[in-house]
Design brief:
CATH superfamily of one domain: NAD(P)-binding Rossmann-like Domain
Shape: globular
Organism: Hypocrea jecorina (strain QM6a) (Trichoderma reesei)
CATH topology of one domain: Rossmann fold
Number of strands: 16
CATH class of one domain: Alpha Beta
Helix content: 25-40%
Number of helices: 23
Strand order of the largest sheet: 9-8-7-10-11-12-15
GO cellular component, one term: cytosol
Family: Belongs to the malic enzymes family.
CATH architecture of one domain: 3-Layer(aba) Sandwich
GO biological process, one term: amino acid metabolic process
Distance between the termini: 36 Å
Largest sheet: 7 strands, mixed
GO molecular function, one term: metal ion binding
Length: about 600
């Protein structure tokens, strides 16, 4: 059990120290995933909460339960079955669910998130057992506020993750199944940054689907109609945002897996008005920039001297370009326009030039077409640009060929190459190939986990093992969200994002060991999130957008303040309170819809 010993910050509303008030007893308590401890209830609580006849006699520890749950998990035949098992466990006992994940994080991460969560989303209507989250229907915009209000009062929700399901995890339009990506992202915020799981709200905006397989499936649970676009769509998004702000004025809104044509447009529309974030645009850019800064530092290169080619000009590619551009502009004290001259974006048709059909987001990166005789292939662009940095967000497997990499290496002694497309089968190159083609000189980060690579690259020709960094957004976006939630930031500013990047980059293992990965391991993500949140909060205070009172100014105190408010998967003592005087939290109603309103 967690300590009940008071700390300097035990008085805070989100404090995780001390007992939890609980008004539930008997079977109702066992059926509450928030309070349920199962076989780990101590005898004193079994008697006080009327559980003695409902549980076997042996009092177990949380570690005992994790061991049992892991054996059950291992007995499942495939990753999708394991994913379904974990979902069921979460419905029964949240503490055990998160403790199991934290104990086996590297093994289970790909099951609870990409790529297995993508399989679960594709099969959502077939695997459906019970609804989790808020379903808002574009055909009933007048019900949005009423439906959101079911999820609590102004102080009940800290973090909202919302999707319209149009571009999910590299598998495209999944319609109403997108509710699972909202839930999965919120699981990661709790797992990686201690966002209280019962204070989060997953939302799907059902605007129809253009996925013909779903439209033809009589089991599909969403609107069986093509996607609504244009003014009706925009009005629906506005209705949602306004209702969410009215009902949960201090909640942070995370936009997830919106279509390319909407993701950046909506982010730019609402960023000046509310504290919001888009992981596909900003999170990918932030974690990539953090890895980039670490690689530059490790190889004694400068961002100001860099020439960057990005292969893939969608939301992720442009998001990375924007973060890198902002960093160059800040470092050199130059305009965004001038900084963007160091970045070349390539899409399916080739390099973006003045002759290309580009979006508003891509426009700032177009090059003068008259200066290019051949801009149609990645090889021709690499040969003419001579980049020292090559980033892939194209989902074109094998796009970074030996010829292209060797052409780059001719002019870049320590080429920085990041094949980031997900899942693994869509990677632009394998780390082993990149290192072999460059005699171990490439600095590599990927979008999915890869095993370390060994080769004869030592100074004496001996074998060297190089660990490959994974550009996992989970080392960035949960900490950013934590910082915004705890500071109650009115906005998430560019300087707060830069601060987050600096927080991650400062923890790069490669800064101390040349063979270590460029980014912290996902297993270290909770202490990383503390640092990211600290940097974000300090930037928010400096920018004047933090509204929480009493934020410590001392670094050490601020870290303690943050950790005290991070939810941990530990059993806390329960304090019995009367139902008639109980709060929603004590009734186990946080994170659940309130029927009958």
């Amino acid at each position: 059990m967690s300590s009940s010993k008071p700390t300097k910050f035990s008085h805070l509303p989100l404090s995780t120290t001390g007992p939890l008030e609980c008004a539930l007893t008997g079977t109702a308590l066992l059926n509450s995933p928030i309070f349920n401890k199962g076989s780990a209830f101590p005898l004193s609580e079994r008697r006080q909460f009327n559980l003695t006849g409902l549980l076997p006699a042996n009092e177990q520890t949380l570690d005992n339960q994790v061991k049992r749950a892991y054996q059950q998990y291992q007995s499942r035949g495939d990753d999708l079955a394991k994913n379904t098992f974990l979902t069921s466990l979460k419905d029964q006992n949240e503490v055990l669910y998160f403790k199991l994940l934290l104990t086996h994080l590297k093994e289970m991460f790909s099951v609870v998130y990409t790529p297995t969560e993508g399989d679960a989303i594709q099969n959502y209507s077939r695997l459906f057992r019970r609804p989790e989250g808020c379903f808002l229907n574009i055909e009933n915009p007048e019900l949005v506020e009423q439906d959101l209000a079911l999820w609590g009062t102004a102080d009940d929700v800290d973090y909202i993750c919302v999707t319209d399901g149009e571009e999910i995890l590299g598998i495209g339009d999944q319609g109403v199944g997108g509710i699972l990506i909202s839930g999965a992202k919120l699981t990661l915020t709790s797992l990686c940054a201690g966002i209280h799981p019962n204070r989060t709200l997953p939302v799907v905006l059902d605007c129809g689907t253009d996925n013909q397989d779903l439209l033809n499936d009589d089991l599909y649970l969403g609107l069986r109609q093509p996607r609504v676009r244009g003014k009706r769509y925009d009005d629906f998004i506005q209705t949602f945002v306004e209702a969410a702000r009215k009902l949960f004025p201090r909640a942070y809104i995370h936009f997830e897996d919106f279509g390319t044509k909407n993701a950046r447009r909506l982010l730019e529309l609402y960023r000046p008005k509310i504290a919001c974030f888009n992981d596909d645009v900003q999170g990918t850019g932030c974690v990539t920039l953090a890895a980039l800064l670490a690689a530059l530092h490790a190889s004694d290169q400068k961002l100001s001297d860099s020439r960057i080619v990005i292969f893939g000009a969608g939301s992720a590619g442009v998001g990375i370009a924007d973060q890198v551009r902002d960093a160059i502009a800040t470092e050199q004290n130059i305009s965004h326009e001038k900084a963007s001259q160091q970045i070349w974006l390539i899409d399916k048709e080739g390099l973006l030039t003045t002759k290309s059909d580009v979006s508003a987001a891509q426009k700032g990166y177009v090059k003068d077409a008259s200066e290019w005789s051949d801009n149609t292939t990645l090889l021709s662009v690499v040969q003419q640009v001579n980049p020292n940095i090559l980033i892939g967000t194209s989902t074109v497997p094998g796009a970074f060929t030996e010829e292209i990499v060797k052409a780059m290496h001719e002019n870049a002694p320590r080429p920085i190459i990041f094949p980031l497309s997900n899942p693994t089968r869509l990677h632009e190159a394998k780390p082993a190939d990149l290192l072999n083609w460059t005699n171990g000189k490439a600095l590599v980060a990927t979008g999915s986990p890869f095993d370390p690579v060994t080769g004869p690259w030592g100074q004496d020709g001996g074998d060297v093992t190089i660990e490959v960094a994974e550009c996992n957004n989970s080392v960035v976006f949960p900490g950013i969200g934590l910082g915004c939630v705890l500071s109650r930031a009115k906005l998430l500013t560019d300087k707060m994002l830069v601060a987050a990047v600096e927080g991650v980059a400062s923890l790069s293992p490669a800064l101390k060991d040349a063979t270590a990965p460029l980014l912290p391991d996902v297993e270290d993500v909770r202490p990383v999130s503390v640092q990211v949140a600290k940097h974000v909060i300090q930037a928010a205070v400096k920018e004047g957008v933090a509204t929480e009172e009493g934020i410590p100014s001392d670094d050490g105190e601020l870290e303690e303040w943050i950790r005290e408010q991070m939810w941990n998967p530990e059993y806390r003592p329960l304090k019995l309170v009367k139902m008639e005087n109980a709060t929603r939290a004590a009734k186990g109603e946080l994170g659940k819809a309130m029927p009958g309103l």
